[in-house]
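Input record (Table S2, row 500):
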Amino acid sequence: MSKDKLLGQLYEKLDKVKGYAYATSIMHWDSATGAPKSGGLKRADSIGILSEDIYKNIVSDEVIEIVKKLKEMESELTTVEKILVEDVQKNIDSYIKIPMEEYVKYSSLVAKATLVWEDAKEKNDFESYAPYLEEIIGYIRKFADYRGYTDHPYNVYLDDYEPGMTVEKLDEFFAELKEGIVPLVKKIADKNMDFNKDFISVPFAIEDQKALSEELVQYIGFDLSRGFLKESVHPFTMGLCKDDVRLTTHYHLSNPMSSYFSTAHEGGHAIYEQNFDDSISGAYLVDAASMGIHESQSRMYENYICRNYNYWKNNYNKLQDRFPDQLGKVDLDTFYKAINEAKCTLIRTESDELTYSLHIMIRYELEIELLNGTLEVKDLPKAWNQKMQSYLGIVPPNDSLGVLQDTHWSNGLFGYFPSYALGNAYAAQLYKQMDKDMDIEKVIEKDELPKIKEWLTDNVHKYGKLMKPEELIVKATGEKLNPKYYIEYLNDKYSKIYDL
Ligand code: ZN
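Output record (zinc ion complex):
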């Protein structure tokens, strides 16, 4: 059979998978953005049913045979086709060893566990959630065994989110971060400086915050004609295709900057999703290189750009005009310090740039222990609190503000958290390169944000999944991931802010 015919058959199958995945994505979107909670279990069942069809279409004898034949004629394939075949093979490998029945049960379990977690978090009731989490971890460990791994079961999942990443590399990465960040956090804590934040802790009309968010996503480069912005408890981005990219943010009456930076963050993700190259969309490689690279794009806009002093030189007076009663009498420096205060706090998503990666380290270490079996779910809250004490010097007063704060584990997302810290470090390295290429601080100061989007599109976005993260970062910056840029950036920024 000819190559084209085989590829045609493969595309037909992938179209089906995409169709089902599209439907489950819409269900998730619906759940998160206002569908009645009362229908949650029904939705979870439907997701379970569709996931069975996804499984069947990927792990079918037919697809396995097509991929095998295409691999045999590798020399005839274009680079893009080769990468696609590899990608499908990886997908098959990740499913094939898991018995379908178990996979379907697991999919339905995580959909239910998410609902249970929501309730447990609301009621500060870890015990009601614990059996679900235990069951999920059981599956995670079992699936790693089915799939096979080298050195550590965690490596299986790391590779799903960050192709090529291993526990060994990550241990080294976090050790470097610890060495670079912990002393800085301590120095700042010792200074005992409190910045005035009262003026951004008063009511800002939600309608005005909404208008500001809509303006912001467009300002940083999101095309609202090919997507939309809604509200959800936990902000997220969903790219159904490059012409239908949806993002959410949240609004808190007396904390307008929370929605501002959430919008900038999700905006960074959403801009990535909108700028995959057309040449790869037909080849089904329209996805991020990795979750870490995806996160680098959100961090780029949230922190490196929108928390930058030069950014606010242009934008602060506009914000004052919108909120004259709250900000009219507050000067730029006071505002800048208020939005860049470094403080050890309880909630990861609300934490500052400096302490953020410490929250990730805690989760990473706990996940490793849970998967190793050296930590039992019943002891998880205690272990969480101990790590909070040792890394951040604070202990949550209850589990809702501690171990129950994140949804990831209820979704079965083990191995995902490190993406956030990797994203911070990738972003710093990319930012440094942009600075070499175009003097980034000047670009921001001169209000030329489209230039940044252009650079990111050329160096990151357009490639989609064509390159592995390591290949991508080397091509863009000339070297492998190096956390020193992130540590340098943090030291530089916070030394100025805190006068160290
Ligand atoms: Zn993100």
